[in-house]
Amino acid sequence: MGTINRRDLGLLVLRVGTGAVLAAHGAQKLFGWFGGGGLDATAKGMEAMGFRPGKESAIAAGLGEAGGGALLALGFATPAAGAAAAGAMAGAVSVHAPAGFFAQGGGFEYPAFLGFTAAAIGVAGAGRLSLDHATDHVLDQPWVVAVAFLGSALAAAAVVGRRQLQEDEEAKQEAAEEAAGSV
How far out from the chain centre does Cα 39 lie? Predict the structure, then answer.
């Protein structure tokens, strides 16, 4: 394996830290661990945030975070893991965006940071201290990077776009009902 260098150690620390945070968030959604609400509460929350159907949205978000995070921490299938986590965070960013950038005011700073970090790891690769390296990078090929990030971007755009269309339609309906009530 050769001498371990600072780059590989840095990637290991970054992968494990980011992956653990993402996996914990996903476990909150899926299983109710670490003070989370579990799948039923997450599904209701997803519905309230405009992601429909709520249960399927909760499962997708939870798997993107928990699965992507666990794979990032292990350094296995790193491009797909980074893309999945980044896609899940794109949905979270869309929810927090109306509150601005900074997390202090409810903004999208935190999910954006997690998403960009996961994406960067997915593009850069896991380094030599990883399962990708141990498996001769079978799931860490340039074509996997392209396919994973394209698929994740298309899925995130579809989900966020669908949510926006539903929100716009609900706003129009509320405005029409309000206008009808004031006449």
Answer: 16
Instruction: Tell me the whole-structure pTM to 2 decimals.
Output: 0.90
Residue 111: asked if its preceding bond is cis (omega within 30°), the reply is no
**Rounded to 10 degrees, what is the CA torsion of 145, 151, 152, 156?**
160
- The 10s digit of each residue's pLDDT in 3-59 is 779 999 999 999 999 999 999 999 999 999 999 999 999 999 999 998 999 999 999
Q: Phi and psi (nearest 5°) for 170?
A: -65, -40
- Quote the CA–CA distance of 87 and 77 in Å, as a whole number: 15
In whole angstroms, what is the distance from residue 162 CA to residue 49 CA? 12
